Amino acid sequence: MHLKKKKKCACVSLVCFQVVWVLHCSQLGCLPAISIFTMCAGGWSPSDSDHYQWLQVDFGNRKQISAVATQGRYSSSDWVTQYRMLYSDTGRNWKPYHQDGNIWAFPGNTNSDSVIRHDLQHPVIARYVRIVPLDWNEEGQIGLRIEVYGCSYWADVINFDGHVVLPYRFRNKKMKTLKDVISLKFKTSESEGVIFHGEGQQGDYITLELKKAKLHILLYNQLGSIYGHTSVMTGSLLDDHHWHSIIIERHGRNINLTLDRHMQHFRTNGEFDYLDLDYEITFGGMPFSGKPSSNSRKNFKGCMESINYNGNNITDLAKRKKLEPSNGNLSFSCVEPHTVPVFFNATSYLEVPGRPSQDLFSVSFLFRTWNPNGLLVFSNFADDLGNVEIDINEGKVSVHINVTQVKKNRIDISSGSGLNDGQWHEVRFLAKENFAVLTIDGDEASAVRTNSPLQVKTGEKYFFGGFPVQMNDSDHSLFQHSFQGCMQFIHVDDQLVDLHAVEQGQLGSFANVTIDMCAIIDRCVPNHCEHGGKCTQTWDSFKCTCDGTGYSGATCHNSIYELSCEAYKHLGRTSNYYWIDPDGSGALGPLKVYCNMTEDKVWTTVYHDLPMQTSVGVQLSVLQLNYSATMDQISAITSSAEYCEQFISYSCKMSRLLNTPEGNPYTWWVGKANEKHYYWGGSGPGIQKCACGIERNCTDPKYYCNCDADYKQWRKDTGMLSYKEHLPVSQVVVGDLDRPGSEAKISVGPVRCQGDRNYWNAASFVTSSSYLHFSTFQGETSADISFYFKTSASDGVFLENLGNTDFIKLELKSATEVSFSFDVGNGPVEIIVRSPNQLNDDQWHRVNAERNVKQASLQVDQLPLEVRKAPTEGHTRLELYSQLYVGAAGGQRGFLGCIRSLRMNGVTLDLEERAKVTPGVKPGCSGHCTSYGMYCANGGKCVEKYNGYSCDCSRTAYDGPFCIKDVGAFFEEGMWLRYNFHSPGTSVKDLVSRTLLSSTDPETTATDLDLNKEELSFSFSTTKSPCVLLYISSYTQDFMAVLVKPSGNLQIRYSLGGTKEPYNIDVDHRNMANGQPHTVNITRNGRDIVLYSLPTTSDTQFNSPKALFLGKVIEIGKIDQDIYKYNTPGFTGCLSRVQFNQIAPLKAALRPTNVSSHVHIQGELVESNCGASPLTIPPMSAATDPWHLDSGKLGFMPPYGRTGSVMILILIRLCLLCLGIHPSASFYMRGDRYIHLS
């Protein structure tokens, strides 16, 4: 062995066995010293090739190791294909090298000559390194040459004995700091202890301590009142007596806490920036007067090194005796514990001898594990008296004594709970004649005893953790789970077991155990369960419980809610409260908003708790608005919206507002980022004006706000704040109220945002070589990708990102296959979803891909989710370096078509902006109606838009974004509506009339106003009969009428000429005047009306239709006698959905359009939906809704009115159903020519 010098770093090269460093090999694998030197040129090869061999290097003192390289034995078939690396400061208490949260197995060699080097993911500081071969060439044996790379390391060490503390007194008697940097390293075998504590006389303090082997930092500032308390926990299993590094960086309220390279950022509670610690900080414990309650906290017992406080080297000052310790003396060498742990896996056992034929059975030990079940100890009594078995069973320790000499042949006792928490727990069990006692963690008060008949005579062997394979079946335990975990301080028959003697083969036996090492891993630290998911674990895996988080998946990564109200709209939902998650899988949680979908564009509304017209009567009043969402959540909504607004109003009486034209404002509002704004609603940033100042219509033209005129009468300044980068309003500060008679009232509406730019953000790839590029995707341990695509091509790459060997890729592999492939270092993995239908159908399809440390998954549309589990060991970090390419990449065939709403880890990529400057790619995408046109109901027409689509309801009797909202009105007695089929002063044969009167069948356009067919539909409800529901007159004697007869029956009357009397159809004999809603659909084609036919003498044309009447017939000329009789006093009730061919007369009356001039109304028409039930989704119950808002908080509720009436109507409908009354019933008759009555 020799030493190489390079850039001040020392490399240890094992070429032959020299004496620069001391080499050891395992006892079972050592050759005589002379043989070792004989084979020095070839490398190390033990005499036995099995899993108990190791090669150990002693560097003489601690080094910082950064890499290791291996070769096989020179010119042979001997090489190691896989190995582990252990390290230690003392040659005892070994620690395996960890990487990606696992005990790492290094890939070795594939031949005897090539050098395989591995750079460590993080450097290791140790004096001893041990290489443990795991596998080797099958045609040879273990053979190894190694080279270890690293640098010198030196640090001053202080040993704390659990009593002594080291105070560092500040130069200034009082220390008030804005910034603090504290760093140190520690190691301990104790699970409790204060590492440092600083405290001020005013009550401020900072404490870092161990609790249950986890690190807790506590901060308190007196200025922050009760909210000044901050407590943060990190780390786990820190009592392993290995070095752990801590760095605490504080700037005001922002703190970065780094433990062993894992940084956690948090912000302290309260409103302080400075920490007052007065005159000292103590390391190793706290002074007796320390707060909180110093006497309840243990001092630290263990070692610290490299203690640094704000640039001061505390360990160096202590070693030079510049600091005086308290409660004892310091030592500057680390005292090592005398414990020898033993590590068990699923196939391990440890057999040790006892003192046979004793009448006292005694076992004690400490154990730690994550598994709820496992065998701890088993031993047979002598003389076939039975046996004793000690298990951990569902987190409790259970003892089973099988007694063969008495009728009651089994004694069971148990104690403890939750003992599979990874902490050390002590078990003591003692049994003698007719007595046994089990004690857990030294708690004598809760020890479990039994006085059952029992005869004890100890056996020869005690088995810990499992059994050897060759044991007889009759000797086996009833418990089948082997123990996985660690044990130490094993006592058998009051004797401490010498585990080193066991290791050297001098005592007992073992299999697959590692002595002098505890390789327990906390798989929940760091916690891979996101968004507050609860992590639980067993020895080799962890599980996330996502209940109540709003997220799902193996790591609680995926939001269960849609991203926006826009997304809910395109799922066919209607106006209601919804949970949305604007950043998807990002850090922001979901929030509850009101989605108003009554218009073409969706409005998202977030409410606050400030009542409208809040009176203000105190000088410089600050009105705080508390929203039902955080500022970050609202910012996510406003940033993705196309437009946002917030109403604001100031009512004043002798209370000036902005003090225009040139004064300092008396009142202002605070928006996003806590910025003050001095403009008012209806104005804009940088303009100190109100709306009246912009429009030049203020009460006094000398001022730019009505209130600035300072009148004694009430005035008002109102308007919309629409600069969304400033919204929402978080505070309003009112100032001019100190004069007698001054009064003011403030109103602030909810934040309303319209549109979602992310949902429709799209790009069209027009050539197979076109692509967009973005910055490298950062998804090391958790990645999700979602997007929509549409294409007519059969294959193409959606996106790809590369690393050195790692990669991630999504592609369309064929017309029916989507592939998600990646490599994190364990080899390529590919998941394929196969669709039964073609995916290149030029329709929108959704892709969701996710990869985390637990699994990877892929879903296309609503097809079953394809999942691939991740290996329990191996690489877990996805390391990418290239740019992210969307479209063609690396010479592969690119994607032809459209990609929309591409989100990666909750962030939407702006495809449109990048496409504007990229050849071969166009922003936006057409053809939305091919996928979404189905949502335009009731004859609504889908209209393509640049960023989506809309439904044109103008030729329907319906309204709303999807043409599903009824348009109806309530008719009082004597009211009527007339719709003329031509405008006043125009020809009866004008184009508009011909188009609207034509059937929806494009082949039957009326060349004049004579109709061979018509379609009529409407809904009605009434309690009075007889009446005329609808009447269509003509310029001839032709007419059509729908009547409710005196009996309440429905009748249709046709008179098309050719017959003396009208043709009457009595549709049903039920009473339709029962107040319930009924729907009527009538289709005539020639003489056919459902099962009825007009007389052969009747004409087939409805000649020259003139007008359509609702409610009452007001027509000049001859009218059918029955109609005349039924016409008085007229219809009373509700009519809705009225449509005659393409004419919707009620809608024309209630919604101003280009045909509204055709409508004449007598009386006041009141809009109503006539009891129709809107499409809704059931709200989540309070029990299952994790963010249930108290309905009593009216500040967060939408305004009353339309929503309330819908709720009342739904309630009425439900009551009718409960009573067995059906609000509607229907029957259908023949084909497309039918009468439909409901």
How would you describe the overall organization of this protein?
- With 1238 residues, this protein is mainly beta.
- The longest helix has 17 residues, at 1202-1218.
- The chain folds into 6 domains: 12-19 and 43-152, Sandwich (Jelly Rolls); 157-287 and 297-320, Jelly Rolls, CATH 2.60.120; 342-469 and 479-515, Jelly Rolls (Sandwich), CATH 2.60.120.200; 601-751, Jelly Rolls; 761-926, Jelly Rolls, CATH 2.60.120; 959-983 and 1011-1167, Jelly Rolls (Sandwich).
- Strand 34 and strand 35 form a beta hairpin.
- It is elongated.
- Residues 1-40, 1001-1007 and 1173-1238 have low confidence and may be disordered.
- Strands 27, 28, 29, 30, 31, 32, 33, 34, 35, 36, 37, 38 and 39 form a 13-stranded antiparallel sheet that branches.
- Helix content is 7%, strand content 40%.
Keywords, please?
Jelly Rolls, 7% helix, nine-stranded antiparallel beta sheet, EGF-like domain, Fibrinogen_a/b/g_C_dom, 13-stranded antiparallel beta sheet, 1238 residues
CATH architecture descriptor text of the largest domain: Sandwich
Structural class: mainly beta
Number of helices: 12
CATH class of the largest domain: Mainly Beta
Total number of strands: 87
CATH topology of the largest domain: Jelly Rolls
Helix content: under 10%
